[in-house]
């Protein structure tokens, strides 16, 4: 009986506290949203599983390794400990995913209509506005964020998961779990969050604007663009080179047409493998002691505000360009300036079709959508340059 009692007292159930129970429920909720609601399942499923595993008492999934004074390893760390420190803390996993995203990206719509670059840039206003909001919230005394933490939170406004993870791992690793969940949750909720903002800022006539056919972009343009983009941005803002460099490298592999096997691997096998471990690593930072606090609530609120501001400024910039442009621009494509590729572009197309059944905006919206990816990488570089 004594042995049985000791076994029971040593079990995870006996040592489970309220915070861990709540975080396990959070993990189960993320798994539910991934499987049933299909909200960003590629990330939310492994993040949910990582959250469950790291909050099981006694499992040691995030246990730190133990070393003797001589430096000899006495006890190995947990799996999630190594996944996080090797792949996320170093920034390796987000950069590899950015390379895969680059290999799946087509710069054609952006090159055929360069004006849409301004829409992607305008949508990044949400990032910097949220940084100011986080600083203002700190002044109230309710929560307290450092300037580096405020910058990491603000990147959520770009609706770019890998960039959010990369910046937070460099500037505020203690907030990484909450920032990653907020970023991917709002990306998944794009079809719910953006349409009301788009309709509120546009008239029926504006939403019905039919845009002219895009010009054909040559292969030479597509091959040269990532090289020119990388060199120009890297020379002015070296801190943006890691993100933008991997993005442009992935795109160059695709557009060059000479490394089909490498391009295929980056777009499929490699990005899938890294996504699994990235999700588990993010879930490893969602332990009860680091997630259940007022700071997390503030991150979720500020992230939503950032996303809404980014959507609104993209639409307003499109309206401004439309006032001075010779060719009509449908303001709806401005909302695609956030980096949720290609979901934001699909939402622009869907709302446009509601006003005009012959109005197909998908390819037009891909221009600002791709520009948003570039814009969020540049914004991340600015943050890292000044605060890293």
Compact summary:
With 388 residues, the protein is mainly alpha-helical. The chain is built from 21 helices and 2 strands.
The percent of residues in helical segments reads over 70%
Strand % is: under 5%
Q: How many strands, which pairing sense, and closed or not: the largest β-sheet?
A: 2 strands, antiparallel
- Which shape, going by the Cα principal axes? globular
- H/E order of the elements? HHHHEEHHHHHHHHHHHHHHHHH
Give Rg in angstroms.
Answer: 22 Å
Q: Give me the count of strands.
A: 2
The side-by-side strand order for the widest beta sheet comes to 1-2
Global mean pLDDT: 89
Low-pLDDT segments, ≥5 res: none
Number of helices: 21
Q: Report the end-to-end length measured between terminal Cα atoms.
A: 57 Å
The chain-level structural class is: mainly alpha
């Amino acid at each position: 009986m004594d042995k049985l009692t000791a076994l029971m007292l040593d079990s995870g159930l006996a040592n489970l506290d309220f915070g861990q129970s709540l975080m396990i429920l959070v993990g189960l909720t993320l798994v539910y949203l991934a499987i049933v609601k299909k909200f960003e399942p590629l990330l939310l499923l492994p993040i949910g599983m990582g959250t469950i595993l790291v909050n099981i008492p006694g499992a040691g999934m995030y246990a730190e390794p133990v070393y003797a004074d001589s430096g000899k390893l006495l006890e190995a760390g947990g799996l999630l400990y190594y996944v996080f420190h090797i792949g996320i803390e170093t920034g390796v996993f987000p950069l590899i995913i950015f390379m895969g995203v680059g290999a799946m990206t087509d710069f054609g719509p952006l090159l055929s209509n360069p004006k849409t670059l301004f829409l992607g840039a305008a949508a990044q206003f949400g990032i910097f506005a949220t940084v100011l909001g986080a600083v203002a919230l700190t002044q109230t005394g309710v929560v307290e964020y450092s300037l580096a933490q405020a910058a990491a939170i603000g990147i959520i406004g770009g609706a770019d998961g890998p960039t959010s993870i990369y910046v937070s791992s460099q500037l505020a690793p203690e907030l990484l779990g909450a920032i990653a969940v907020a970023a991917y949750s709002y990306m998944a909720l794009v079809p719910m969050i953006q349409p009301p903002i788009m309709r509120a800022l546009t008239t029926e006539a504006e939403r019905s604007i039919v845009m002219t056919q895009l010009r054909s972009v040559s292969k030479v343009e597509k091959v040269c663009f990532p090289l020119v983009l990388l060199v120009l941005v890297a020379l002015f803002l070296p801190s943006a080179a890691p993100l933008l460099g991997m993005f442009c490298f992935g795109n160059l592999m695709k557009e060059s047409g000479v490394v089909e096997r490498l391009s295929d691997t980056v777009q499929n096998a490699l990005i899938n493998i890294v996504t699994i471990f990235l999700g588990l690593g993010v879930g490893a930072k969602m332990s009860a002691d680091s997630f259940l606090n007022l700071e997390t609530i503030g991150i979720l609120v500020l992230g939503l505000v950032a996303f809404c501001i980014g959507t609104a400024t993209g639409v307003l910039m499109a309206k401004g360009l439309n006032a001075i442009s010779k060719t009509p621009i449908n303001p709806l494509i401005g909302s695609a300036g956030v980096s949720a590729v290609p979901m934001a572009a699909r939402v622009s197309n869907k709302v446009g079709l509601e006003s005009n059944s012959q109005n197909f905006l998908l390819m037009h919206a891909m221009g600002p959508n791709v520009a948003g990816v570039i814009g969020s990488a540049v914004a991340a570089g600015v943050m890292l340059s000044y605060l890293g």
